[in-house]
Specification:
CATH topology of the largest domain: Jelly Rolls
Strand content: 15-25%
Number of strands: 11
Distance between the termini: 29 Å
Number of domains: 2
Strand order of the largest sheet: 1-3-4-11-6-9
CATH superfamily of the largest domain: Jelly Rolls
Order of helices and strands: EHEHEEEHEEEEEEHHHHHHHHHH
Largest sheet: 6 strands, antiparallel
CATH architecture of the largest domain: Sandwich
């Protein structure tokens, strides 16, 4: 992930740098902020390429963004953006309609039409995940998408909640992703967005079945990762949360060569392995680390860990400490 920060610029020039960067990297936009904020302005953006999808994570102090008719005439890149509030809040006005957004809420930006967006002025910092992609990649009617543009897609219910969890988890882990990871996630990200937007339009039949299935799997994985520490997490809970049958859930994982329980166990073991290698957690008991990630039986955890990695948890922790010392 590439990072750009105003910290690299003299204090009095930071907002001007931020405004120019937006127009040069993406599309002409008019950014504005109060003189009080401008004097101490700070912001940063992380940028990753997910195939045809460019993903940016913006952390910023309050300001507003204006896409005017004049700027559209200068450049109309024929792209959409989908935004998800990760921290703080924001608002958008388009065609006289105003919508406010909280953490987890999503919206569609159509850069071919004027709009005004704003990061919450009463909060010191907000964070926004933006996914930019050619509009041709969305297999949805253009007329309907224009109706959805700038509307609030709640991240608290139904498909919107599942898509929101996927995007929030993506924001949390962007800095960990390697180029092969981002390549694999590009199709999933588009499928999740397509399904969420189609659901908001109530036109789910326009989404190809294979795209709906991939999007559902991405949402299920995000749900599992988010709840790994809950020892009650299992196939029945996952199926109920996604409104599918147990049989269908097992079929989805079998098609990828996994079992549901096995995939959960692998993810839990990965997290335990990471914590055991973390020097900052060296004083934390092994059984506490196991319990944190959903293993209720120390003996079962030790057996599963040895089976996966060829060492007991204690041996692995000692080996990691020796490697760091060398």
């Amino acid at each position: 992930m590439d990072m750009v920060s105003t910290a690299e610029v003299a204090a009095g020039e930071r907002f001007g740098f931020w405004r120019d960067m937006h127009s040069k990297l993406w599309t002409p936009l008019d950014l504005r902020c109060s003189s009080q904020v401008e004097s101490g302005f700070e912001a940063q953006v992380g940028i990753s390429e997910f195939g045809p999808v460019q993903t940016t994570l913006i952390t910023t102090m309050p300001h507003s963004i204006h896409r005017t008719p004049k700027l559209i005439r200068q450049a109309d890149p024929d792209i959409f953006k989908v935004g998800c509030i990760v921290r703080g809040g924001g608002a958008m006005t388009k065609d006289g309609q105003h919508a406010e957004f909280r953490v987890g809420d999503m919206t569609l930006y159509d850069l071919s039409h004027p709009y005004q967006a704003q990061f919450a002025p009463d909060l010191p910092v907000s964070q926004l995940l933006l996914l930019r992609f050619p509009r041709s990649l969305l297999p949805l009617p253009a007329r309907d998408l224009r109706r959805l543009s700038a509307a609030r897609i709640p991240g608290t219910q139904g498909i919107g909640a599942l898509a929101s969890q996927f995007l929030l988890n993506l924001a949390r882990h962007m800095h960990e992703l390697s180029p092969p990871d981002t390549a694999r996630l590009s199709t999933l990200a588009l499928d999740v967005l397509t399904t969420a937007l189609a659901d908001a339009l109530d036109t789910r039949s326009t989404v190809p079945p294979h795209a709906r299935q991939r999007a559902l799997m991405a949402q299920i994985r995000a749900f599992i990762r988010n709840d790994l520490g809950d020892d009650r997490l299992g196939p029945d809970v996952i199926a109920a949360a996604h409104h599918i049958s147990l049989r269908y859930l097992h079929k989805l994982f079998q098609q990828e060569g996994h079992t549901v329980a096995g995939w959960i166990r692998e993810r839990r073991l990965e997290q335990c392995r990471r914590d055991l290698a973390d020097p900052q957690l060296a004083a934390r008991p092994i059984h506490a680390i196991a319990a944190r990630w959903g293993f209720t039986s120390p003996a079962h955890f030790s057996q599963a860990f040895r089976s996966a990695y060829g060492l007991s948890p204690r041996q692995f922790r000692q080996q990691s400490a020796t490697v760091r010392a060398d």
